[in-house]
Amino acid sequence: MQDFLFSLLEPLLGFKCTRSILSLDIEDKVCVKLLLSKIISTGIIAGSCIVKLPQIIKIKSSKTTKGLSILSFNLQNLAIIIALAYNYKSGNPFSTYGEGAALVIQNFIITVLIAQDTKISNLLVGLGFAAYTIFSNFLLNSSISELNKWQWISTIIGLGSKLPQVNYITKFLDLFKC
Question: pLDDT, tens digit, for every residue of 41-64?
């Protein structure tokens, strides 16, 4: 059992901290903090894998995407893809940005559901995914200094991704004005 746990923890904590943790050395504060950090990071990534699941289930059960903006989801994905490329190229551990990858996948699913509901052609959806692929490849082949500039742009895009949804909600609420 100890060998199994060692093989599971060693890639995450390193040899020294894995030995320390498995020997239950709680005095080794550095290794205990590292373990807690890894547990929290893994929990965040696991949670992000299901964060949009209720929305996807609701869309499927109600058979409508009314109130959702395909532009909002596409802009949000664009901002996240930039952040993913930046973090990957910077050599940051996946645990620090992995939730973005899970969100992009879920947003793509919602985007497809919106496209189906609003009768956007499959060709247009396919072209959109091709554009994401080309842009992602461009980002992954960019230098860190170029990606640093894109990071700033992604902040603006991320904030801007909320505007189409706010615009839709505002128009909806205007219907109830007296």
Answer: 888 888 888 999 999 999 999 999
